[in-house]
């Protein structure tokens, strides 16, 4: 089977990262979590004298999307390395803006690069749909491991990671006020990308993101032809 590039869309708390991680663990994809990647850069103590990093950290920590030209550059470079190594890739946060997706007269968008790296027929787009109330509830109580970065489902209240026993922490962008900003950003800047992808002939598979993660995973595996 040809290597696939899978793009998972959905509002905050829709389970993008969970579903990408399941695909990576079971089907040899590289999970590229752009949110985690950006967070690691903007919170890197060694980079805090860099004015670009300081600017992007302010955006990231307040729920505003980071500067599209900067995001496009760092994500494209990382994607090229993964494709060159011969791996499939699954995104759980990239292609968040029209510019990042389609570029402009001076910049080639990430979508065109994916066509170059993987072939148009091997690009899959998934759209997870959840209610705003679910997003707010899931993210407000979510914790991530300070060591391995694994998220814990909202219903769990313990303080240690089940995987590595590292201490769990609350991300700066998972407070209710920031989540509301992120939901609006998704509606205004990211969701319109899906309509344009459909118009350009890319198949978008819409999936209900409310059920338990394992049920959604089973449906995704079927839709992607991985069984």
TrEMBL record:
Catalytic activity: AMP + ATP = 2 ADP
UniProt key word Mitochondrion: no
GO MF entries: AMP kinase activity; ATP binding
GO cellular component: cytoplasm
Membrane spanning stretches: none
Location(s), subcellular: Cytoplasm
Enzyme Commission number: 2.7.4.3
Pfam families (UniProt xref): ADK (PF00406)
Enzyme class name: transferase
InterPro entries assigned: Adenylat/UMP-CMP_kin, P-loop_NTPase
Keywords per UniProt: ATP-binding, Kinase, Nucleotide biosynthesis, Nucleotide-binding, Transferase
Keyword S-adenosyl-L-methionine: no
Entries under PANTHER family matching the protein: NUCLEOTIDE KINASE
Subunit-structure text: Monomer.
Family: Belongs to the adenylate kinase family.
Protein name: Adenylate kinase
Source species of the chain: Candidatus Jorgensenbacteria bacterium GW2011_GWA1_48_11
